[in-house]
Amino acid sequence: MTIFEKIISRQIPAKIIWEDDDAVAFHDVDPQAPVHVLIVPKRVVPRLADATDEDRPLLGKLLLVARDLAKKLELSNGYRVVINCGPDAGESVPHLHVHLLGKRALAWPPG
Ligand code: DGP
After folding, report:
1. How much distance in Å is there from the Cα of 38 to the middle of ligand 1?
2. 16 — phi, psi (to 5°)?
């Protein structure tokens, strides 16, 4: 069971800010920006590389949830949406998730 499955099943606490039948969003425990939210599908897809064509609606939904939460969290000056996939990207939890970061200027290119 991934740490995110434990959050989804309420076995461990998290600051959940949004949830529906398909996904949940909560504040990252190690925020890299004043706003750092993770949007996590309830069905486990380990990482983007493992997604299938069946996951197309789910993947689209995760981005639209990021859009909606950015509005709700008043990220009116911009925000970044990140998916880390695999070791070179620094993926640390093998349960697909979208990072939503904002409320500060973010450098580019990323480290
Ligand atoms: P990634 O490196 O893309 O796999 O991002 C995993 C993120 O998950 C990382 O930013 C820290 C966050 N994280 C790990 N464990 C927990 C936890 O128990 N609670 C919360 N809220 N976030 C966690």
Report:
1. 8
2. -80, 130
